[in-house]
Amino acid sequence: MSRRLFALTCVAAATAAAAVIASPVAAPPAVAADGPAFLDARELPPQAGTSWHAGPVTDGTPDPLPFCVGEALPGATSRHRAFWTDVDTGAVQVTVVERDETAARSLAALFDSAVKGCAERVQQQDPEVKAEWRDYGRVGAEDGASVKGVRTTHAWTGSDVHLFAVGRDGRTVTVVHWGRMGTFTDAPVSAFKKTTRTAVNKLYGG
């Protein structure tokens, strides 16, 4: 698997966030003082044998960027929060407040398209990686949300599975990315849809 693909995984993002929070010499992140409400750790899909931890709500885009949707994120207006467990599961939520509802609809469509095309892009970037995606349908929340999944497989490193939620409330758009080692059968789709509904319902219309 290419270094780029590893760099974009959700688990790597969560690990990096944990390292920054834990380090006594690291500069503190720019924490958002207001804006749309974010998920709490307890609102992520339950993970057997461990619990979720949450970083602060932070201005800007995550570093590294989240898998599949990272390049579509507008850096100047994004806020994010990283989540991680004590095992191999991580997540990140990114929220953007656009100038109006038209711009928000366009951004949500861009995120949705980025997830749909992710498997194909991954295989083009690294022919040794096999990838596929699934559409898990719509979620009833505010102005709408959808859930999709992406699985990547490499002969030497095994399989990773990712879930993505894209939702909107007025001019506010949010993306939630969950990821772990495993296959589609390991993805908690029903619980993630509940997380998606919670994430979108916590947004304000702007």
Quick rundown:
The protein is 27% helix and 30% strand. It has 206 residues and is an alpha+beta fold. A hairpin with a 3-residue loop joins strand 6 and strand 7.
Descriptive overview:
By secondary structure, the protein is α+β, with helices and mostly antiparallel strands. It has a single domain (3-26, 36-201), classed as Protein Transport Mog1p, Chain A (3-Layer(aba) Sandwich), CATH 3.40.1000. It has 5 helices and 8 strands, in the order H-H-E-E-E-E-H-H-E-E-E-E-H. It has helices at 3-7, 10-22, 101-116, 118-125, 189-201; strands at 53-54, 58-59, 78-84, 90-97, 129-139, 145-154, 158-169, 172-181. Strands 1, 2, 3, 4, 5, 6, 7 and 8 form an 8-stranded antiparallel sheet that branches. Strand 6 (145-154) and strand 7 (158-169) form a beta hairpin. The radius of gyration is 16 Å and the shape is globular. The N and C termini lie far apart (41 Å).
Characteristic terms for this protein:
single chain, 206 residues, alpha+beta, Protein Transport Mog1p, Chain A, eight-stranded antiparallel beta sheet, 5 helices, globular
Question: How many independent structural domains?
Answer: 1
Would you identify the CATH architecture? 3-Layer(aba) Sandwich
Q: Catalogue the unreliable spans.
A: 1-32
What is the CATH topology? Protein Transport Mog1p, Chain A
Write the layout of secondary structure elements.
Elements lengths: L2 H5 L2 H13 L30 E2 L3 E2 L18 E7 L5 E8 L3 H16 L1 H8 L3 E11 L5 E10 L3 E12 L2 E10 L7 H13 L5
Antiparallel strand pairs: 1-3, 2-3, 3-4, 4-8, 5-6, 6-7, 7-8
